[in-house]
Amino acid sequence: MTKNCLLAIKGLQFDASEEDMEIETVTAAEYYKKNNSHYVIYEEAFEGMEGTTRNIIKFREDSFDVTKRGIMNVHMVFEENKKNMTNYSTPFGDILIGIDARKISMQESSRKIQVNVDYALEVNYEHLADCRITMNIQAKGEEFSLLGIGQPPQMPINGA
Q1: Whole-angstrom distance, CA of residue 14 vs CA of residue 60
Q2: pTM above 0.90, yes or no
Q3: Pick the CATH number of 4-139 from 3.20.20.30, 2.40.128.20, 3.40.50.150, 3.40.1160.10
């Protein structure tokens, strides 16, 4: 895997009271591997707000950490079969969230990595939604797909 990569993150919430909510982001990122942990770093901008948030994602076969610093600040830890609590700081105030990761899986090849995380999300000790994160990391210049490793690309992005 090369340092300069494309990152696609797709988040999905399954909420019984409303329709499923899906959010997708594709962005340039930096990737590296150190001490058997993978790292992805990228900047995130929010509509209507000045400044950015630096995102650092650290993952292995059995864990997935997201650290955000900037407009939003949080350190979320996803560990299989373990609930972790954290404060999510936003410009509008802090939110206490709980993350109960049910399954973490990773597929890796020399030019692509896909990570899937299934988890339950709590806000202020109350179940909010069942969620799924799908993250694809791929060397720049390759055909890119939000579907993941081994799937035909839907939207080729060349050299972006």
Answers
A1: 25
A2: no
A3: 2.40.128.20
